Amino acid sequence: MQRRNFLKNSALAATGVAVGAATVGTASAANASLLTNPGSPILTSASSLARPMVKKSLMWGMVKEDLSVMDKFKLLKDLGYDGVELDSPDKLDMKEVLAARDKTGLLIPGTVNSMHWKLPLSDPDPKKREECAKSIEKALWDTKEYGGSTVLVVPGVVNATVTYGEAYERSQAEIRKLLPIAEKTGVKIAIENVWNQFLLSPLEAAKYVDDFKHPMVGWYFDVGNVLRYSWPASWIEALNKRILKLHLKEFSFKKQNDLGLWKGFDVEFMEGDNNWPEVNKALQKIGYSGWASAEVAGGDRKRLLTIREKMDEVFKA
Fold first, then answer.
1. Over residues 129-157, mean pLDDT
2. What pTM value is reported for the model?
3. Phi (first) and psi of residue 255, to 5 degrees
4. C-alpha gyration radius of the chain
């Protein structure tokens, strides 16, 4: 996985990792109330609620076949994926991507900002923060063109030179500057939980989003990443309506303990410790019904088919 490999090879590794335009949907009017009132009771039985994960996607960098953009889109569509997430800014030709999307019907639910690790919004250098903010602005406009609804943003990094408070203050200040662009594009800024030593608890994550008091900021919940800190169901309960999309990866405590921290990710879906039935139950309780994107080690056609089949199991768990 590109982002995880980058983090693994950095100094931080020692301390830790439209239809597509639709965001969270609801199964019924009763469930819709959950999205605006996190503490409101469920008014329907579990059997009548929508399935939480209904659209399968994956990361563009997971496709390791040497193919054109068009043929990669065709491949993913043929394998049963509903969409693919792109990086932005990137070197892909916009016209080529849009032609592939339109011809195949493979959607682009959103993008991942490609600069937030190299130039984090928490960096002490204001010029670097500005450069990152500009890259997010471009990602917002790109995502609008793609027909997506979110740009995934890692909000900051805490390390030996950046304190927790500094990361909080700087990242929020930069994101606030981007809110007018988010409004113009209709694309939401989706904060993701990663191994960046920042926003380590679900209650804090919810507060971080709420601080903006703005509907264009939400959360991109990575199920596998939180196992290092706490259980996914606790995060889902706390984040509730703030969850815009899901990233799926598995994590194994046994592999982490036996082979090292990063080896915890080297396990197939349904063979780790995420407890997917409980994840689905928690998502269903808050009324989530939308996209779930795999963010795991990719490969060729055979490997990508295996991932899609494993995602089927996760969706049905």
1. 97
2. 0.84
3. -65, -35
4. 18
